[in-house]
Design a protein that fits this description.
- Helix 1 packs across helix 3 and helix 4 packs across helix 5.
- The chain is an alpha/beta fold and 190 residues long.
- It is built from 9 helices and 5 strands.
- The chain has a 5-stranded parallel β-sheet with strand order 2-3-4-1-5.
- Helix content is 45%, strand content 14%.
- Bound molecules: adenosine-5'-diphosphate and magnesium ion.
Length: 190
């Protein structure tokens, strides 16, 4: 079942011509899930706000669910909060084990984790636990260089990024905000 996937954000409603650096064929291959989900490989979507990261992440997640894979979609800070509660209750390990049932965990807005949340390393433990076993799909407005806010210290950031990118497809969606673009088109339209 598709856990918490935003409605209406599908591959069919995604305009691929707005992101020329990404091909539909490449996305369709990811939507099949074979290969990368079996290997626990990751997908990372970078780009400025409004560029379509959440839409594309949802679209891929939904297609994977339709193809029989188990997917959980969550905002990164919500999941961090849940895992921190689990840690306080000395149940982090079992909380992480429960997430194992999902072939793919979509962590939307990865770099929005607050300083306060970064003080504990639940996100690092999640990344380590899934490494080479279960996949992550991460969206982020900030490049790796600015992920220090997400983890307690720079060494941990480095170790986390190292594991994430070891087997990963990375899309750099450096496009204009789709929202702004469509708003302008409407204004200057026929
Ligand atoms: P981001 O997560 O990168 O900030 P979103 O995915 O939330 O951006 O996109 C902002 C809005 O624009 C959403 O309503 C989304 O559906 C729409 N959008 C963005 N890119 C596209 C696209 N290529 N085709 C269709 N709609 C898009
Ligand atoms: Mg988003």
């Amino acid at each position: 079942k598709e856990a918490h996937l935003p409605a209406g954000k599908t591959v069919d409603t995604f305009a691929f011509d707005a992101v020329p650096m990404i091909s539909r064929a490449q996305v369709m291959a990811l939507c099949a899930g074979d290969g990368w989900l079996e290997q626990g490989a990751n997908l990372i979507l970078f780009g400025p706000p409004g560029g379509g990261k959440t839409h594309l992440a949802s679209a891929i997640g939904l297609a994977l669910v339709e193809n029989g894979w188990r997917v959980l979609f969550t905002r990164t800070s919500d999941l961090v909060q849940r895992l921190q509660v689990a840690r306080r209750e000395l149940a982090l390990e079992s909380a992480l084990a429960k997430l194992d049932k999902y072939h793919l965990l979509v962590l939307d807005d990865f770099a929005y984790v607050s300083r306060d949340q970064a003080e504990t390393s639940v996100l690092f433990e999640l990344i380590s636990a899934r490494y080479e076993r279960r996949s992550l799909l991460i969206t982020a407005n900030q490049p790796f260089g600015e992920w220090n806010r997400v983890f307690p210290d720079p060494a941990m950031t480095l170790a986390a990024v190292d594991r994430l990118v070891h087997h990963a497809t990375i899309f750099e969606m450096n496009v204009e905000s789709y929202r702004r673009k469509t708003a302008e088109t409407r204004r200057s339209g026929p």
